[in-house]
Amino acid sequence: MEFPKHLQLLIGDRGHESTLPAYLESPTWILDKAWDEFQSVARRALDAYMHYCEINHLPHSFLLGLDILVMGEVDPDRRDTIVDIRPTLLEGPCCNSYPACPNLWASRLYGQLKHIGRNPDIVEYPIHPTKILDRICKLFEDVWTTYGDTGRKAVVGVFTRPYELSEEETAHTLTLQALKDAGFEGYRITPDEKPQVKDGKLVVNGTPVDMVWRRIERIHLPGQSNPPHREYKEMKWVRFYEEEFARSVVTDTPGTIFINPWKIDDLRSKTIEERAFRIYESKYPDRKISRPVTLLDDEINSESVKNMSRRGGWVMKRWNSTGGKGIFLHVNNDLVKDIAKKLYLKYDGRHMFLMDSQTMETELRKFDDFNEDTAIQQLRYTDARDLGNNKRLAYDTRINVIYDPVEKKWDFLSGMSRSVPCGPDVPNGNSLLTNVSMGAEISPLIMGHVKPGADRSEIKYGPLLGAMVQGKTELEF
Asked: Poorest-confidence range of 48-57, 331-340, 342-351, 379-388?
């Protein structure tokens, strides 16, 4: 279906956008008691994040994205049974700080559902999808009132990413326009605008910038093809800024407020996040954060990883991973083959190693002399909806949260899902759930409490979420 321009999801460089498909047929519904459990997981992770920032004297972010999925693990003694079903934080405040376009995708997905005759308003949203941009603008006003010069309006800037696979360029443009409509003087910031660092502030078009939406992007994006219409097309990688300038933005701009500041919020490090969680749990032992079992540093050895394989396998997350590029799933095929086939029909995705006993021993030997800034996590299995016709849909969910500097608390802003089709005819099976540039599709995430008397007939759950909604923690296939 062709949607009106104001509802379209777009990908790509400004002036060279293409339409991004969305999977609307089966939205992700996180409702009622399940939503309460998701909120609880998120709030504990945020408490740990704030505690880590406080004890390390680091500025915290004002907007974060948390990847929380309904997951379970295979019972090695009952290979047809998934146990320990619960909302599981896969990436959270320390390693996944920038939410993927909540202002664009959540509101437009909502509009698309309305356009095709669905009723996404059977729930009480934390913040209604049509009000997300308003809430972003209020955040800027509140931050400036709290930390800036109340005698004038702030000058704001939006760092964005001009390349042909950019998932965020359009969203950033809309954000900038909303900020201008709210009365801010605003500037787009890419290498084309030739920004500078001067007198302790980021400067663009000769104007000092008070507040910045998003951080400076990495200096380059390894592995991305080069846009033929950009002047830096001869470079091997898409390059945004020279390293000297990028470092100067990070270290020499105390006068510019970043909505997502360095250092804690751009390392995207699972090792940092796990340490933050452990510090928090050691202080508050009754406040465990729901996540996979995670190994760090000297804990990583062949025997400890082998123990993970007995529960189904392990996940390697390198320190600088993003978009799935540095994340690899090692699947104990001898143990989980049957249950994984029942869930996904086909599951040999592009980031997966399907290991038999011999292959697994080879992989485990690599940990005998292991020295790398990497987190190793126990592999858990995500939910997958049955679409009929020999198809499945696996999904991940990202919940965006926003910090209120006036009330000094986190609020839930919005959310979205990314879906990966599974089945015999899908080349990558249950590929790692990742960015749309790597093969995932955008799907609506509807979260909140259902209004009394609302029609629930459109709601479809996968087996794991369905079990959790019924108060179960295990499921036999």
From this structure: 342-351
Q: Is residue 297 part of a domain?
A: yes
CA distance 249 to 81: 51
Torsion from C-alpha of 249, 250, 254, 256, nearest 10 degrees: 60
Q: Is the pTM of this model over 0.85?
A: yes
Comparing C-alpha atoms, which of 93, 96, 105 is closest to residue 43?
A: 93
Task: Write the single-letter amino acid at 59.
Answer: P
Q: How many domains does the chain have?
A: 1
The answer to whether position 198 is within a domain reads no
Neighbours of 217 (CB within 10 A): 22
Tell me the C-alpha distance between 210 and 244, whole Å. 21
Identify whether 29 is part of a domain: yes
Three-class SS state of 422: strand
Q: Locate tokens 């919005």: which residue?
A: 414
Show the beta-strand stretches assigned E in 92-210: 123-124, 155-159, 185-189, 196-198, 201-204, 207-209
> Among 72-76, 299-303, 346-350, where is mean pLDDT lowest?
346-350
Predicted pLDDT at 395: 84
Going 263 to 265 to 267 to 273, the CA torsion angle's sign is: positive
Q: What is the mean pLDDT of residues 84-113?
A: 82
Burial class of residue 424 in the structure, from the number of CB atoms within 10 Å of its CB (0-12 exposed, 13-18 middle, 19+ buried): exposed
CA angle 83, 435, 319 (to 5 degrees): 75
CA distances, 202 to each of 104, 195, 220, 378 (Å): 26, 7, 20, 42
Tokens of 68: 């929380």
- Domain containing 362: what range? 1-9+20-123+268-477
pLDDT tens for each residue of 35-77: 999 999 999 999 999 999 999 998 899 999 899 999 999 999 9
Asked if residue 183 is part of any domain, the answer here is no
